[in-house]
Amino acid sequence: xxxxxxxxxxxxxxxxxxxxxxxxxxxxxxxxxxxxxxxxxxxxxxxxxxxxxxxxxxxxxxxxxxxxxxxxxxxxxxxxxxxxxxxxxxxxxxxxxxxxxxxxxxxxxxxxxxxxxxxxxxxxxxxxxxxxxxxxxxxxxxxxxxxxxxxxxxxxxxxxxxxxxxxxxxxxxxxxxxxxxxxxxxxxxxxxxxxxxxxxxxxxxxxxxxxxxxxxxxxxxxxxxxxxxxxxxxxxxxxxxxxxxxxxxxxxxxxxxxxxxxxxxxxxxxxxxxxxxxxxxxxxxxxxxxxxx
Amino acid sequence: xxxxxxxxxxxxxxxxxxxxxxxxxxxxxxxxxxxxxxxxxxxxxxxxxxxxxxxxxxxxxxxxxxxxxxxxxxxxxxxxxxxxxxxxxxxxxxxxxxxxxxxxxxxxxxxxxxxxxxxxxxxxxxxxxxxxxxxxxxxxxxxxxxxxxxxxxxxxxxxxxxxxxxxxxxxxxxxxxxxxxxxxxxxxxxxxxxxxxxxxxxxxxxxxxxxxxxxxxxxxxxxxxxxxxxxxxxxxxxxxxxxxxxxxxxxxxxxxxxxxxxxxxxxxxxxxxxxxxxxxxxxxxxxxxxxxxxxxxxxxxxxxxxxxxxxxxxxxxxxxxxxxxxxxxxxx
Lengths: 293, 332
Hints:
By secondary structure, chain A is α/β, with parallel strands linked by helices. Chain A has helices at residues 4-22, 27-44, 91-100, 108-111, 140-153, 172-183, 204-207, 213-219, 232-244, 263-269, 280-292; strands spanning 82-85, 160-165, 189-195, 198-199, 202-203, 223-228, 249-254. Chain A is 41% helix and 11% strand. In chain A, the strands form 2 sheets. In chain A, strands 1-2-3-7-6 form a 5-stranded parallel β-sheet, sandwiched between helices. In chain A, strands 4-5 form a two-stranded antiparallel ribbon.
């Protein structure tokens, strides 16, 4: 098993290669969340063994009544815990994590990201590692509230971990979900927020400031862990502590989505970090820095 | 005078709850209004009060279904469909979850006005792939619909009736099957939901004058049609659709799409034209928007080539005091 810091590195590398190959990708999302995802996979969740094929099959079709089709959830494993990525723009980061943790063939990143294959850029529920088709943001948390309520009622073991992006806190549906989760006293639902401060138009403070997120979350009754989202030890400790909480826990991970590659900071400052279509110069820098990462 | 049953859905939901321990009912602050109070009292552990938060509520139903429960959400049709439309599309219809949505206050049946009148719910739900769409027309439908849908995979939207509901039928509702009420072949009225009772009475009377006048109740809007219905359409010269919904996206649309591909009778649609609506008593609104019994009678006369016996006008209608519905929880 790869060490957690190496898994984080691999997430950055695989996503960087994807971005170069496709000449575009959600690189900053992977760079901001690499430590969070690697810790969740390696040190926190009891995911069990993947039940999805190591080399994913082709896309067979959208779900039909009684025929759900390929389930991205299979690659997460048959263990009691579940990891749900809410912002589906993080799909490449998830695919990279699956490769780094031995759940999917590295070749799938190339072979299965074409037409008729499962690894879509904005993941859907047939995409490996994706549980909900949540490309329209602030959808997956409510689905997970439902799953957590059902597990509570059916006395099923395990924790449901939801990975949220801070942009989703602009959506009212997120707060509706937190309200319900609190009312239902869900202790089997844990939330990690990637607080990277960016959205499509640029820095959130300029687009739609969120203000004191931690205070808002506490006002909704959440136990909040305000941590550095790149510090493996802090992430691990907060997660372990959250598992002991008998109420709704939220880990607010402050991240720097430019972490790993030097040109990303310029893009942050120029409000062009959400989607990376590389310039020739950026491509050179990325290729060079990738070689020594 | 036809038999009237008080709150048939409340009883049905309770007995269904006894038969199926996986049934969970999720409500948005309209528990008694949507006749889920008896269920909630009988099975408090299986009632979830989600408050007025329909976006999260809908996606929650999807999650409940993922883990093996059988979730049902009864609400006013506008809050069951229009407000949380995207969540229904992406978390229920797309993944084809076995979730049941029930919408009450169909069309113009409430003084609640535009915010409470579901004139587009059937359109919104039928256009979603994977969705089965039903509309109940009487107390028997409301008593039997839960049994009728229990084994159907995928999501279902059903428009329902509450409070004092007329009983028109003896046989249980069957998904995918229309109900033959009167056999006349030349002019066939297809009616849905609360309009079936009106059509029943008017067609019964007019059959003395026009023995070739028939009536069919459409319970299943999607998938549309069955063998018997298609046979009847083939033989008819004129088909009149009669619905408490926008013509452009309800029953008339479904029939028009069918007839465009299977040419036969001429279509005369009666329903809400391309307009929003306002609040008032049902008789007043039916008259104002031209979907009352006089519109139906006129259409039938016209279909048989006779001039209308009475012309509907806003001016000759006695605008009455708005009487609040005493048979439901909140008067709407």
